[in-house]
């Protein structure tokens, strides 16, 4: 494994990209997308309404104006994370993506629209308890986000695979490139994005997102994937089967917010 550091400026976060001798990890190149995945743990009460207004009237229009299109906005409706909103921000401009909050703080149009959210009086009145961001690089085999038809009913399955070693992580990424993309497609699973985690919690790990019309379609798609002959063959290959290469899986069902562009 090798690590390369990208220094865009003194303000830019450093980004690590792992590489292997084979197909392995996503390696940043011209045109490849990066993803900032933001998570907002909302306050009870008015937190949801204030955050939705901030997303729809301030943040997403500004991101679009800055050249970042197809912004995903989602809610977690089940499990211990509720109420939580996720924001998926794709861009091929790494500098802008890693310096986003600094750039927003200098944008007068944004600041005016965002003022109620950015300047809520004190912790008790804040629309969110805390927020966190992670930075991902798109896989070689899936270099750009693929958005479903936003006019259709849809849900999303956000999954994160954590490995105990970088070698195991490399092998898991290889599995996607050696067959999982195709198996998902043939099983009726819509594929939105795949990314290597560069900065964030739970390194080394990858995150990907699937989409389905509803929960019944999700269950049918996964059943088709797990029973697919090519999946059984791939999972049995000695390179991937000799030890567990994924030690933890986070799995969330997300619903798009009304203004989501994904």
Automatic annotation (TrEMBL):
Domain NIPSNAP: 158-261
Domain of life: Bacteria
InterPro entries: Dimeric_a/b-barrel, NIPSNAP, TAT_signal
Record has Signal as a keyword: yes
Keywords noted in UniProt: Signal
Pfam entry (one): NIPSNAP
Signal peptide: 1-26
PROSITE patterns (alphabetical): TAT
Record's protein name: NIPSNAP family containing protein
Lineage: Bacteria, Pseudomonadati, Acidobacteriota, Terriglobia, Terriglobales
């Amino acid at each position: 494994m090798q690590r390369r550091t990208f220094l865009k400026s003194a303000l830019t976060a450093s980004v690590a990209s792992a590489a292997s001798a084979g197909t392995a990890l996503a390696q940043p190149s011209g045109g490849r997308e990066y993803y900032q995945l933001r998570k907002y743990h909302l306050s009870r009460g008015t937190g949801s309404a204030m955050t939705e207004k901030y997303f729809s009237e301030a943040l997403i229009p500004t991101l679009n104006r800055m050249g970042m299109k197809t912004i995903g906005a989602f809610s977690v409706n089940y499990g211990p994370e509720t109420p939580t909103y996720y924001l998926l921000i794709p861009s091929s401009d790494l500098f802008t993506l890693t310096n986003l909050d600094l750039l927003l703080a200098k944008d007068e149009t944004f600041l005016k629209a965002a003022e109620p959210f950015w300047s809520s009086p004190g912790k008790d009145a804040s629309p969110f308890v805390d927020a966190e961001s992670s930075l991902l690089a798109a896989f070689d085999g899936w270099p750009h986000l693929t958005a479903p038809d936003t006019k259709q009913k849809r849900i999303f399955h956000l999954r994160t695979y954590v490995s105990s070693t970088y070698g195991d992580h490399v092998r898991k990424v290889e599995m996607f490139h050696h067959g999982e993309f195709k198996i998902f497609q043939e099983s009726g699973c819509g594929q939105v994005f795949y990314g290597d985690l560069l900065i964030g919690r739970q390194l080394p790990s990858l995150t990907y997102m699937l989409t389905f019309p509803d929960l019944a379609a999700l269950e049918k798609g996964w059943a088709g994937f797990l029973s697919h002959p090519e999946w059984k063959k791939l999972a049995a290959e000695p390179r991937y089967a000799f030890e567990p290469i994924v030690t933890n899986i986070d799995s969330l069902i997300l619903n798009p917010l009304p203004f989501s562009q994904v």
